[in-house]
């Protein structure tokens, strides 16, 4: 099937990193303009604009000019202009850069909603917490090439391990534990079975148990996996 240029434009939503809205237009006017460019008309256009204004918490700002908005509010409007026509392919480049927590939550909520409805979302970000929240397929880029292409849980399992963290009064002892590392007063013990290994680790401290101050579980996360992955890639 061969699509015309207007049909293609109506299926794609793009929000680049730099905010691009018409400063002299109101929030509603900006959304109506970009919706119309994508092919929306009359009742459908009004409905899509109304829905997006509510979803992105822009209702009180509906008739405010874009130049009068805060940075986070402009960011919401900017991304909203890319989403107003509910495109099938959505390209978002650092959509929450410099955004406040409220803006970030609203945008992530809308992205998840569109993905659940069947849209394909290409989401570029350095905020790994957002990647974790979106819980989708992750492509990690480093030095100009793809380092990994997997799910969040797969990356965490592949590149990190949870650790038992034992802190002592004075210098930490060296324990006979595979992969153990010591840093000052702290021992880090990799574990796949925290409950079982906790008892074993305390027993191994022996006479040093009296100096043991705290025992914590440090769970593996996406940030640790990312740092390990990028570090491994640079060592190649």
Automatic annotation (TrEMBL):
It is a peripheral membrane protein. It holds the Pfam family ABC_tran. GO terms for molecular function: ATP binding. This is ABC transporter ATP-binding protein. Gene3D superfamilies: P-loop containing nucleotide triphosphate hydrolases (3.40.50.300). It is found in: Cell membrane. Residues 6-97 form the ABC transporter domain. It comes from the Bacteria. Belongs to the ABC transporter superfamily. Keywords: Antibiotic resistance, ATP-binding, Nucleotide-binding, Transport.
